[in-house]
Amino acid sequence: xxxxxxxxxxxxxxxxxxxxxxxxxxxxxxxxxxxxxxxxxxxxxxxxxxxxxxxxxxxxxxxxxxxxxxxxxxxxxxxxxxxxxxxxxxxxxxxxxxxxxxxxxxxxxxxxxxxxxxxxxxxxxxxxxxxxxxxxxxxxxxxxxxxxxxxxxxxxxxxxxxxxxxxxxxxxxxxxxxxxxxxxxxxxxxxxxxxxxxxxxxxxxxxxxxxxxxxxxxxxxxxxxxxxxxxxxxxxxxxxxxxxxxxxxxxxxxxxxxxxxxxxxxxxxxxxxxxxxxxxxxxxxxxxxxxxxxxxxxxxxxxxxxxxxxxxxxxxxxxxxxxxxxxxxxxxxxxxxxxxxxxxxxxxxxxxxxxxxxxxxxxxxxxxxxxxxxxxxxxxxxxxxxxxxxxxxxxxxxxxxxxxxxxxxxxxxxxxxxxxxxxxxxxxxxxxxxxxxxxxxxxxxxxxxxxxxxxxxxxxxxxx
Length: 464
Ligand code: ARG
Known about the structure:
Blueprint: H1 15-21, H2 24-27, H3 31-47, H4 53-71, H5 84-96, H6 98-101, H7 109-145, E1 150-155, E2 158-164, H8 165-190, E3 192-193, H9 209-215, E4 220-221, H10 225-230, H11 233-259, E5 267-268, H12 287-311, H13 324-347, E6 350-351, H14 353-362, H15 367-376, H16 381-397, H17 407-413, H18 421-425, H19 427-432, H20 442-457
Parallel strand pairs: 3-4
Antiparallel strand pairs: 1-2, 5-6
Arginine binds at residues 23, 27, 83, 109-110, 113, 317, 319, 321-322.
């Protein structure tokens, strides 16, 4: 295939070097962005008197036709083209002749690819935000429905104090909501239009950069032409945001795997999100959760790869930057599918409420409350801590829960105990009393749910 840049060359590119440097295999997925950018560029060239109206109409008509051909799968670039930009241009020339050759006036592939990438990240950021919003809705349902599903809260993976499933899930709701805010935030920096920066130093043609920027839904044109073609910060910011999302998904999946284990049995992952073993008939494995945890490393890898690619590049464009695409596509595809899988898994998971409740009792998650009881009756906290510690040891030796001790047994440890200790150590009460802002108590959770509903009301990011 004839190269866009063949004129200066006598010999042709070594065959292996050609396929080494070609990017069509992966950048063809930028076809929408490339064509939409070209349509805006052609329209602007005409308004600025660089293209005749007939030429513009011919170009835009052919670009629109190519877009629909590609969307319908009627036209598909083969590997003989160097990249998506060459493919679009040669197809135009083939279809409409000389007018096709005028499209690239005042443009370089450097600002063109910078534009395509920004538009791609922008579109995918919105799709990801939407998937995250659906995930928030799944968590919100679990939060609303499980205000009295008691479970142990853990530190060091040791039972600590009782919480509720609502409260635990609200922790994740907050994380995923911050993830969405992060996307919204990077979107603002991302949404500037590099088109018109040329190869690196702008162009001598009287282009109207504001016009293409407006046409393509950007907030403004970028401010420096060298920065425009050499900046991939937005890709790095986006993959960072994806990495943080993956980290949150992975932590939750790790818990689901633990809770789904035979020993815990707090949850059962539904058949739709589990798989079996080819040899052990009894097995039902939480593979989807494990894969999400596993794929997290891969997204981190893409982030490190991009940071490393960019760190030594002199201004402005260097071909190294072509490596941005596979890293971006891989991280983006992976995180997007993980968000959807996680939402599906959480939407169909079932919780064993009795077992979770019993686990609070048997894990002495009410021991802090019992110590506070003694403090309220006048004992110094350090002494109370020691007395309750002794009671816990006694309970372990006798396989009892605090709530199962007789009054006589309580009194054996301190005269300060009376009948109201039973109210004090009931798991429901331990939770109910915790009403500081953000705590699991019923009132605090009611207030939390109001704030959560407000966050949900903001809806999805609407974009440009
Ligand atoms: N395929 C190239 C990329 O992805 C397009 C830009 C090529 N520009 C150039 N001067 N070789 O970065």
